[in-house]
Amino acid sequence: MKTLVIGTGGTIATRRDPASGELGGRCDAEEICARLPAPLSSELECINYRNVASMEIGPSDVLAIVQLLREKIADDGVDAAIIMHGTDTLEESAYLCDILWDLSEPVVFTGAMRGGGLLGEDGIRNLQASLAVVQCEESVGRGVQVVLNDEIHRAWDATKGHSLNPAAFISPRSGIAGEVWLDDVVYYGPAHARHTIETDVLDTRVDLIRTVTGMGVHHVEASMQAGASGIVIEGAGTGAVPGDILAGLQAAVKQGLAVTVTTRCLQGPAPFWPESRDRMSQLFSGGLLSGPKARLRLMAALGKYPDMEDVRTAFERGGKYGC
Ligand code: ASP
């Protein structure tokens, strides 16, 4: 077994300076892996992709990482991968990777909430638990997962729910997929069907707009004027938006934009309005996806398909159950 460990930065790559006590130094992937307790049950190959805060990582980086994984699997005998990533945008990179990941080899995204050398640092344990997950036979075919705090989350649902606590990640819509008990990996159910979109082109001109009470239509108009090719609207409840915004979204559809409705609620699907289905029928359904995740799925669907009906089919196929 050979596991590729890719470093991108984030808190897992930070280290406290023993002299000053300051958290600032940045470790590369090899240095982080060297702190794993021996013996390791897999050969590791470490690559430093970048060493930055996760807000500096974007969709083009995920495309490059997926390309790198494919090459390593095809040419170098790699059969699993761990991506170390800052936790702030980890859920987005992990889900985009999951959308693109049509192979069966297990991929895990992990990070840390407490930096190296701090009391209660969690990065090395998260890495160790991730290694147990990617080496587990049952992880094959489950796509991309997120492992922190001994919990396994499906990438489509993983959400950073706390800004500081090491138990930061939650899966609000479906619950966790499993847990790591010391070295044992336990899944609570079978793998879901997955609906990937294999593309090496993303259309990043997709805006996310959150609905709040009393808001006007100017955000939608600004998106259209800026040349967006898609809009994801986070409605309230089951996807409710004010009437003038709905009119603005319908105008956007007429102009050829792909418009998707999700909910700003943490749980449940959107849109879900049996009584107004016709009125909303030109808008795509975000299903169980959060706004940020729907945005990524729409980027992939728009990047792959020129025809809007194909975009809709590829987008909505994954929305219902998220994956
Ligand atoms: N600021 C960090 C980041 O790169 C936070 C973390 O890694 O936990 O996302």
Summary of the model, kept short:
The chain is α/β, with parallel strands linked by helices. The chain has 8 helices and 16 strands. The strands form 4 sheets. An 8-stranded mixed sheet has the order 4-1-5-6-7-8-11-12, with helices on both faces. Strands 13-14-15-16 form a 4-stranded parallel sheet, sandwiched between helices. A two-stranded antiparallel ribbon has the order 2-3.
Descriptive keywords:
8 helices; 16 strands; Rossmann fold; 323 residues; binds aspartic acid; 8-stranded mixed sheet; single chain
Fourth-level CATH superfamily of the largest domain? L-asparaginase, N-terminal domain
Structural class: alpha/beta
The number of helical elements comes to: 8
Low-confidence stretches: none
Strand order of the largest sheet: 4-1-5-6-7-8-11-12
Indicate the proportion of strand residues: 15-25%
- Percent helix, as a range, is 25-40%
